[in-house]
Amino acid sequence: MENKDLEFTTEKAERYEKEYSEDGFWNKLKNNASRAGATLVYAALQLYYVMLSSKVPLRDKAIIAGALGYLILPTDLIPDLLPAVGYADDLSALIAVFNRVKVNISDEIKEKARQKTIEIMGDVSTSTFDMPMFKDK
What three-state secondary structure class fits 106? Predict the structure, then answer.
């Protein structure tokens, strides 16, 4: 990711940081998991657990909160109610932030997010967890 792209992502994420709340996050995931899809849920959960880590810099936590705030926001660039494309912008925001903080995602965080994704969604294809974006470098 180029510096220009990173600055854009950081700026946008900071705008939505105030929208983030833990209750809002869990409600959004649990009530919309099937529409949002396992990839989005798994990415969001990894970011959530990274944000809770004491090892992550405050600036990265703020950016994560911004991306999760954008996910929670009921009105965004592409309304979440639109079939098939409603969560594309949310997933894009999560992926941009995910790529920035990926170095902080431990195997423990991945496993915790994996188990929670299965708990929320039920039977999830293992291919969701094996996507290249979720692999170590």
Answer: coil
pLDDT along the chain (137 residues), means of 10: 46 67 87 84 95 92 90 67 66 88 93 94 82 69
* Rounded Cα–Cα distance for residues 24 and 132 (Å): 29
Q: How many H-runs (helices) and E-runs (strands) does the chain carry?
A: 7, 0
Percentage helix, strand, coil, to 5, in the chain? 75, 0, 25
C-alpha 106/C-alpha 3 separation (Å) is 25
pTM above 0.85, yes or no: no
Q: Would you say 113 and 45 are in contact if contact means Cβ atoms under 8 Å apart?
A: yes
